[in-house]
């Protein structure tokens, strides 16, 4: 062996324990991320004609690494002195899992050799923008990571506020001001027709950050916390708790 060559030995590191980061909780996180992947990837695939031969693959071994890296990061915070905490709350868990999902990219879309992804055939009867679908396939890991982060915090399947509630919030967030000429103007602090529109804006903004910006778990955590303050989500203190998550 030349002097410039070095041997590297890998030793398994025990990252799970019987306190908070248990095997059961780790498996639950993997199952949850797997369901997020399945829902989104199957939706993308259903929009593509079978003649394109497009498939997707989720690497379970890389998904294990996602959870492992997230646990190592959260463990460092839990054991940090002098700012010790009992356990990470929902925001930290969502932030670390989604961050490492983007970093490790466990999903890949597969298509025949020589296939031009930009020339895929849209399935019959599907009214969808092909350019947008191609972009989503190329950035599927970022899109799934956004889904992981948001669905861990928000219950999008439950209608928490109707349009009438949205109008009431908008009405209570109107400020009358005067410009330099003394003319009264109305400043709308809330400019959405309903809360579903707000949800779509939140999702698009997070997708942009996950795809094009340098992010960290702390940044993701603070973004989610900021969104959670909005009355639309009616979150309880349980999301901030570090005792049971």
Shape descriptor reads globular
Q: Tell me the radius of gyration.
A: 22 Å
Biggest sheet, open or closed, and with what strands and sense? 2 strands, antiparallel
**Cα end-to-end separation:** 51 Å
Structural class: mainly alpha
Number of strands: 4
Order of helices and strands: HEHHEHHHEEHH
Strand order of the largest sheet: 1-2
> Helix count, per DSSP?
8
Task: Describe the fold and architecture.
With 245 residues, the protein is mainly α. The chain has a domain at 23-156 and 218-237. The protein contains eight helices and four strands; from the N terminus they run αβααβαααββαα. A two-stranded antiparallel ribbon has the order 1-2. Strand 3 (174-178) and strand 4 (184-188) form a beta hairpin. Helix 1 crosses helix 5 (140-153), helix 2 packs across helix 3 (90-104) and helix 3 (90-104) runs antiparallel to helix 5. The radius of gyration is 22 Å and the shape is globular. The termini are far apart.
């Amino acid at each position: 062996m030349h002097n410039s060559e070095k041997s590297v030995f890998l030793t398994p590191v025990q990252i799970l324990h019987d306190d908070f980061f248990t095997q059961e909780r780790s498996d639950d996180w993997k199952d949850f991320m797997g369901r997020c992947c399945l829902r989104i990837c199957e939706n993308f695939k259903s929009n593509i004609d079978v003649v394109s031969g497009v498939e997707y693959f989720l690497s379970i071994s890389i998904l294990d690494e996602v959870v492992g890296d997230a646990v190592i990061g959260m463990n460092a915070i839990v054991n940090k002195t002098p700012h010790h905490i009992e356990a990470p709350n929902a925001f930290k868990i969502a932030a670390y899992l989604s961050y490492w999902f983007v970093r490790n990219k466990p999903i890949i879309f597969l298509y025949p050799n020589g296939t031009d992804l930009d020339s895929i055939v849209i399935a019959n009867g599907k009214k969808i923008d092909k350019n947008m679908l191609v972009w989503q396939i190329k950035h599927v890991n970022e899109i799934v990571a956004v889904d992981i982060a948001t669905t861990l915090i928000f219950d999008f399947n439950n209608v928490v506020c109707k349009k009438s509630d949205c109008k009431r919030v908008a009405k209570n967030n109107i400020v009358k001001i005067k410009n330099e000429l003394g003319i009264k103007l109305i400043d709308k602090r809330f400019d959405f027709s309903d809360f579903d529109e707000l949800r779509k804006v939140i999702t698009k903004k997070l997708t942009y950050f996950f795809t094009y910006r340098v992010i960290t778990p702390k940044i993701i955590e603070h973004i989610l916390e900021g969104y959670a303050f909005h009355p639309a989500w009616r979150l309880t203190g349980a999301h901030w708790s570090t005792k049971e998550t």
